Amino acid sequence: MVCLITFAVVVTESWWVMVIPAVLAAVYWAMVSLETLLLFTVSLTPLSITLKNVGFNVGLSLPAELLLAGITLLILVRWLHSGSLPWKAIRHPIGVVLLLQIAWMFLTSLTSEMPLVSFKVLIRHIWFVIPLYFFLVKVFASHRLRQAFFPLYAYPLALAAIYTLVVHAGYGFSKETSTWVSFPFYKEHTVYGMALAFVLPYAMMQAWQKVPMKPLLRMLAMSLFAVLLLAIVLSYTRAAWLSVLGAAVFGFMLRLGIQWKQMVSVLLLSIGMLWLTQSMWMSVFTKNDTVSSENFTEHVQSVSNISTDASNMERINRWHAAISMFQDRPLVGWGPGTYQFQYAPFQHASDLTIISTNGGDMGNAHSEYIGPLAEQGWPGLLLILALVWTVFSQGSKTYHQLAAGKDKRLLMVALMGLATYFIHGFLNNFLDVDEGAVLVFGSCAMLVSISQTAKKLAE
Question: Where are the alpha helices (DSSP H) in 170-214?
Answer without folding.
Answer: 175-178, 189-208
